[in-house]
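dumping this here before i forget
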Amino acid sequence: MNLTLEKRKQELANQYIDDPEQKEIFLNKATRYSMWANYIAGLILNSKKYKEFHVTDIRRELKHLLGNLYDGPGARESSLLTADMAYTSNWHSGNPCLEKVDGKKGYYRFKGFPIKSS
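structure:
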Protein backbone atom coordinates (compact mmCIF):
# COMPACT_ATOMS: atom_id res chain seq x y z
CA MET A 1 0.00 0.00 0.00
CA ASN A 2 1.37 3.42 -0.85
CA LEU A 3 2.17 5.88 1.91
CA THR A 4 -0.67 8.25 1.08
CA LEU A 5 -3.25 5.46 1.14
CA GLU A 6 -1.82 4.11 4.40
CA LYS A 7 -2.04 7.61 5.90
CA ARG A 8 -5.67 7.92 4.77
CA LYS A 9 -6.48 4.51 6.29
CA GLN A 10 -5.02 5.72 9.62
CA GLU A 11 -7.05 8.96 9.41
CA LEU A 12 -10.25 7.02 8.72
CA ALA A 13 -9.60 4.73 11.68
CA ASN A 14 -9.05 7.68 14.00
CA GLN A 15 -12.09 9.53 12.69
CA TYR A 16 -14.65 6.71 12.57
CA ILE A 17 -13.64 3.73 14.72
CA ASP A 18 -14.29 4.17 18.44
CA ASP A 19 -13.92 0.57 19.60
CA PRO A 20 -10.23 -0.12 20.36
CA GLU A 21 -10.45 -3.82 19.40
CA GLN A 22 -12.10 -3.01 16.07
CA LYS A 23 -9.50 -0.30 15.41
CA GLU A 24 -6.66 -2.73 16.21
CA ILE A 25 -7.99 -5.27 13.71
CA PHE A 26 -8.63 -2.55 11.11
CA LEU A 27 -5.13 -1.11 11.37
CA ASN A 28 -3.05 -4.25 11.90
CA LYS A 29 -4.92 -7.29 10.60
CA ALA A 30 -7.08 -5.91 7.78
CA THR A 31 -4.08 -5.54 5.52
CA ARG A 32 -5.79 -6.01 2.14
CA TYR A 33 -7.76 -3.16 0.59
CA SER A 34 -10.81 -5.42 0.28
CA MET A 35 -10.75 -5.95 4.04
CA TRP A 36 -10.37 -2.42 5.37
CA ALA A 37 -12.25 -0.59 2.61
CA ASN A 38 -15.40 -2.72 2.96
CA TYR A 39 -15.18 -2.40 6.74
CA ILE A 40 -14.93 1.40 6.85
CA ALA A 41 -17.60 1.91 4.18
CA GLY A 42 -19.93 -0.55 5.96
CA LEU A 43 -19.31 1.13 9.31
CA ILE A 44 -20.12 4.57 7.92
CA LEU A 45 -23.21 3.37 6.05
CA ASN A 46 -24.38 1.69 9.26
CA SER A 47 -23.82 4.93 11.19
CA LYS A 48 -25.96 6.69 8.55
CA LYS A 49 -28.77 4.28 9.54
CA TYR A 50 -28.54 2.01 6.52
CA LYS A 51 -29.92 -1.31 7.79
CA GLU A 52 -28.67 -2.88 4.57
CA PHE A 53 -26.78 -1.53 1.60
CA HIS A 54 -25.72 -2.51 -1.90
CA VAL A 55 -22.18 -2.87 -3.25
CA THR A 56 -22.77 0.35 -5.20
CA ASP A 57 -23.40 2.16 -1.89
CA ILE A 58 -20.02 0.89 -0.65
CA ARG A 59 -18.30 2.11 -3.81
CA ARG A 60 -19.99 5.52 -3.58
CA GLU A 61 -18.94 5.89 0.06
CA LEU A 62 -15.35 4.93 -0.73
CA LYS A 63 -15.17 7.37 -3.64
CA HIS A 64 -16.21 10.08 -1.20
CA LEU A 65 -13.80 8.95 1.56
CA LEU A 66 -10.75 8.34 -0.61
CA GLY A 67 -11.17 11.05 -3.26
CA ASN A 68 -8.44 10.80 -5.89
CA LEU A 69 -6.95 7.74 -4.14
CA TYR A 70 -10.01 5.68 -5.09
CA ASP A 71 -9.36 3.26 -7.95
CA GLY A 72 -5.67 4.14 -7.86
CA PRO A 73 -2.65 2.08 -6.79
CA GLY A 74 -3.57 -0.05 -3.79
CA ALA A 75 -7.24 0.95 -3.93
CA ARG A 76 -8.50 -0.53 -7.18
CA GLU A 77 -12.26 -0.89 -7.48
CA SER A 78 -11.64 -4.32 -8.99
CA SER A 79 -9.90 -5.33 -5.72
CA LEU A 80 -12.86 -4.38 -3.52
CA LEU A 81 -14.36 -7.92 -3.62
CA THR A 82 -17.14 -7.19 -1.14
CA ALA A 83 -18.44 -10.79 -1.17
CA ASP A 84 -15.08 -11.90 0.25
CA MET A 85 -15.78 -9.95 3.45
CA ALA A 86 -19.04 -11.74 4.23
CA TYR A 87 -19.12 -14.08 7.20
CA THR A 88 -20.08 -16.89 4.80
CA SER A 89 -16.89 -16.46 2.72
CA ASN A 90 -13.57 -18.21 3.19
CA TRP A 91 -11.52 -15.31 1.75
CA HIS A 92 -11.48 -12.83 4.64
CA SER A 93 -8.50 -14.30 6.53
CA GLY A 94 -10.58 -14.69 9.68
CA ASN A 95 -11.72 -11.07 9.70
CA PRO A 96 -15.15 -10.83 8.04
CA CYS A 97 -17.26 -7.73 8.64
CA LEU A 98 -20.38 -8.05 6.50
CA GLU A 99 -23.43 -10.28 6.39
CA LYS A 100 -25.11 -11.09 3.07
CA VAL A 101 -28.81 -10.25 2.95
CA ASP A 102 -30.73 -13.38 1.97
CA GLY A 103 -32.61 -13.12 -1.29
CA LYS A 104 -31.14 -9.72 -2.25
CA LYS A 105 -28.15 -10.09 -4.54
CA GLY A 106 -25.36 -7.64 -3.79
CA TYR A 107 -26.89 -6.45 -0.49
CA TYR A 108 -25.12 -6.58 2.87
CA ARG A 109 -25.40 -5.59 6.52
CA PHE A 110 -22.48 -4.32 8.57
CA LYS A 111 -21.53 -6.65 11.44
CA GLY A 112 -18.00 -5.55 12.30
CA PHE A 113 -14.98 -7.74 12.84
CA PRO A 114 -15.45 -10.73 15.13
CA ILE A 115 -13.79 -10.22 18.51
CA LYS A 116 -12.00 -13.28 19.80
CA SER A 117 -12.35 -13.88 23.52
CA SER A 118 -9.01 -14.03 25.33
